[in-house]
């Protein structure tokens, strides 16, 4: 790449980041009890995914999310996958994400994961691996959307001369799905905890782009098992669906955490009565549990009678004796993940632990085998990015977004996150990572 090309990319990166700062495109992080808002740094060198690679990923993502939705329906209804011994009963019901309060509830169209964020990496063997399934409140789609909108303004020729799939249809997908879930029962709202939430920018952005009403704690109330929006002028408007950006345990203080001021009292009653749709459904955490992840290829086989197209990273569950022995004997070369953590926290690389820390980790696995999974380290591809005025290589993943209403659709874009630390595999924004545009080629 020439010096002129690098200067052009550098100018584009700096301009886009300045515009994002001007637009208030930020995310918040709580650390040591303090809330800090910061920019999510954008890099102007795009990730490019070929048409053939994307076609493969699209089919695999639809298959995986379909199986996960079938699993969620099953686990809160007939429980056939447990009765048939595919997944151990104890393993499911000991999951922190399993919500017994959701037993027997039948969501509209049997959809639980309306919005799924599937995290993948591309190995140096040119194979794609799924690292995590995010089915509760996956975030991040707004960042590549607004970054590309800004890029179109500052560099109009970029997309005129490259055959890249347009990514502006994500909010159309959301709008259509929410309309299907509302079933004509009322308006669609996006429930935000407020500006101190890490993804508040995204909440307000999606509300503007979809035409949904942005609702804050206290704006919604339940009457006769129906949800209503009061808003600034206290007009009473029926709500058909709630795209919630509030965690399960805080959604209804009458059912879950009684001290919560973020949710809607008695919303679970309206949900059980079928009078409002919750997007995503309460209780999805049992399916994106890092331990349940191990069983997703088995779900594909069990529910769809198909071989899983997308591969998991090679994963071991200390819950099983054979895996338990393997993990304890090979801990120094594995990645260890705490199933109770998220956002890049609770991830340990055995190769980086001292002998004393390895011994401590082994003791924890012996005492709490259900709490941990271990994975082989995938040597996934580095991507080019600009650091100051130089091109460097860093680890990166891809969060693909899958939207399910009456049918399942995969957004032809995604959130490519990268590590700014040359020695780190952790790419999460909360851990200091940045992001770049994802170009899905159409030719």
From TrEMBL:
Circularly permuted ATP-grasp type domain location: 46-418
Family annotation (SUPFAM superfamilies): Glutathione synthetase ATP-binding domain-like (SSF56059)
InterPro entries linked to this entry: ATP-dep_Glu-Cys_Ligase-2 (IPR051680), CP_ATPgrasp_2 (IPR025841), UCP005522 (IPR016450)
Record protein name field: Circularly permuted ATP-grasp superfamily protein
Source organism of the structure: Hallerella porci
């Amino acid at each position: 790449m020439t010096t002129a090309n690098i200067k052009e990319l550098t100018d584009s990166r700096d301009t886009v980041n300045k515009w994002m700062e001007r637009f208030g495109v930020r995310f918040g992080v709580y650390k040591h009890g303090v809330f800090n808002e910061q920019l999510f740094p954008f890099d102007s060198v795009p990730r490019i995914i070929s048409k053939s690679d994307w076609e493969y990923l699209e089919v695999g993502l639809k298959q995986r999310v379909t199986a996960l939705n079938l699993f969620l329906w099953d686990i809160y209804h007939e429980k056939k996958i447990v009765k048939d011994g595919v997944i151990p009963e104890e393993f499911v019901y000991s999951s922190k994400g399993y919500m017994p309060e959701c037993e027997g509830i039948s969501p509209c169209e049997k959809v639980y994961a309306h919005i799924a964020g599937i995290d993948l990496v591309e190995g140096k063997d040119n194979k794609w691996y799924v690292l995590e399934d995010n089915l509760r409140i996956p975030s991040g789609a707004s960042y590549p959307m607004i970054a590309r909108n800004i890029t179109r303004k500052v560099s109009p020729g970029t997309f005129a001369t490259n055959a890249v799939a347009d990514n502006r249809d994500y909010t159309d997908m959301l709008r259509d799905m929410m309309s299907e879930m509302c079933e004509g029962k009322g308006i669609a709202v996006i429930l935000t905890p407020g500006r101190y939430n890490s993804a508040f920018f995204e909440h307000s952005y999606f509300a503007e782009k979809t035409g949904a009403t942005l609702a804050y704690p206290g704006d919604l109330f339940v009457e006769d098992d129906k949800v209503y929006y009061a808003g600034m002028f206290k007009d009473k408007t029926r709500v058909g669906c709630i795209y919630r950006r509030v965690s399960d345990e805080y959604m209804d203080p009458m059912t879950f955490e009684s001290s919560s001021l973020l949710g809607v009292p008695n919303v679970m009653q309206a949900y059980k009565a079928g009078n409002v749709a919750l997007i995503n459904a309460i209780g999805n955490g049992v399916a994106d549990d890092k331990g349940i992840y191990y069983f997703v290829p088995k779900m594909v086989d069990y529910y769809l009678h198909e071989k899983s197209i997308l591969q998991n990273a090679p994963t071991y569950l200390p819950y099983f004796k054979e895996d338990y022995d393997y993990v304890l004997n090979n801990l120094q070369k594995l990645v260890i993940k705490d199933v109770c953590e998220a956002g890049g926290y609770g991830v340990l690389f055995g190769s980086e632990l001292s002998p004393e820390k390895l011994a401590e980790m082994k003791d924890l696995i012996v005492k709490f085998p259900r709490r941990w999974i271990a994975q082989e380290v995938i040597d996934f591809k580095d991507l080019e990015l600009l650091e100051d005025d130089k091109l460097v290589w860093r680890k990166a993943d891809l969060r693909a977004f899958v939207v399910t209403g009456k049918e399942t659709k995969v957004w032809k874009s995604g959130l490519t996150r990268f590590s700014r630390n040359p020695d780190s595999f952790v790419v999460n924004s909360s851990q200091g990572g940045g992001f770049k545009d994802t170009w899905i080629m159409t030719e």
